[in-house]
Write a structure and sequence with these properties.
About 25% of the residues lie in helices and about 30% in strands. It is of the alpha+beta class.
């Protein structure tokens, strides 16, 4: 998922959004675009026939709900990953791995780790006692082969391999990952093995307060129609799809299935470099591309983040440099062409 799997993957606003969801097993209503495809199946994502224990934990629509958890529930995952994560709301445990070891330059701009040079992984617990992990790993081209080999050897799927940036040095590739099974520690161990093939630095303890960015954040908020959050050296705004997104027979929590996440990194004089992506269904893609073109926003990629999601989601990665508020207005017109709502104040997401 930057939802669809970014930070996503600043948790206060998403926590507020999730707080409205009922029960330990979240009973999200399926959106009109998200219904039917997997509702009557007896098979899980891998095609294996579901046993009685799985069927017993599905609702009448055949879907398995995510259940709430806390950071304490994921202590074994933190131990395997070698660093602490955070809860996004009550359903998603997320860990970030900034690539602060790299100095990435794109079109003369030094790209901060928070803008576009970082990895992240998320874990979700389900009502059938299985665990799902979704994430995105930022790797150099020289690291790519070893990372994919490590993922494959540990049973972690690669569901997308693509770019987030146009011309940039050193060359990076982003790998979207997916794993699903009964043991979260095993999944985390596989992800740690893949990360060990990269130069990702160890976790750093930090008690620093959010920076005051030299950006007109009030103007950006007004232009986007939402409230963003300072995350490291960037200002981030997130929009969530209104539909319920499913991965096979499993409902993805809001903030994990598909989000439009837009980050602004100040470059001086009220200007910003903007990177992010807009989550669309097929019928929205051309309208969004047209809005981006008219707004002077560059398109980096159009691709999927998953393989069996319903409704089928596509992600349009964007890049722009210029007046931050002007860019925000253009991005708002693009997001307005999608079935998305602001996740107010959200600094997280896919």
């Amino acid at each position: 998922m930057g939802a669809s799997r970014r930070y996503l993957l600043t948790t206060v606003a998403l926590g507020s959004a999730f707080a409205a969801l009922p029960g330990r097993a979240v009973d999200a209503e399926r959106g009109a675009s998200g219904g039917g495809a997997h509702g009557g199946t007896d098979r899980d994502r891998s095609g294996e026939r579901a046993g009685p224990a799985v069927r017993a934990r599905r609702n009448a629509d055949g879907l398995v709900r995510p259940v709430e958890s806390t950071t304490k529930d994921w202590a074994h995952v933190a131990a395997e990953l070698g660093r602490e994560g955070n809860m996004l709301g009550r359903l998603i445990y997320r860990t970030a791995f900034p690539r602060s070891d790299l100095r990435v330059v794109s079109h003369g701009v030094t790209v901060s780790p928070e803008l576009a040079v970082g990895s992240h992984v998320s874990f979700i617990r389900y009502a059938d006692n299985t665990m799902m992990t979704m994430g995105e790993l930022a790797v150099t081209e020289t690291e790519l082969h070893q990372v994919t080999g490590a993922l494959q050897s540990h049973g972690i799927e690669q569901v997308a391999i693509h770019n987030h940036l146009l011309a940039h040095s050193p060359r990076l590739v982003w790998i979207h990952t997916h794993g699903h099974g009964p043991d979260a520690a095993t999944l985390a161990r596989g992800l740690r093995a893949a990360l060990a093939c990269t130069g990702t630095p160890p976790a750093k303890s930090s008690t620093t307060r959010p920076k005051k960015l030299k950006l007109d954040t009030a103007g950006i908020d007004a232009a986007l129609g939402t409230t963003g959050t300072v995350y490291g050296g960037v200002y981030k705004a997130v929009f969530r799809r209104r539909e319920t997104i499913t991965e096979g027979s499993y409902i993805l929590p809001p903030g994990s299935g598909a989000t439009s996440a837009l980050s602004f990194q100040p470059v001086g004089g009220g200007r910003a470099v903007v990177s992010g992506d807009v989550a669309v269904v097929a019928g929205e893609a051309q309208k969004v591309l047209d809005a981006l073109q008219r707004g002077g926003i560059k398109v980096v990629e159009l691709h999927n983040h998953g393989m069996v999601d319903t409704p089928r989601m596509f992600f349009i990665h964007v890049w722009a440099v210029g007046d931050a508020v002007k860019i925000a207005r253009a991005l708002r017109r693009a997001v307005a062409a999608t079935n998305a709502a602001p996740a107010r104040g959200a600094g997280g997401g896919e």
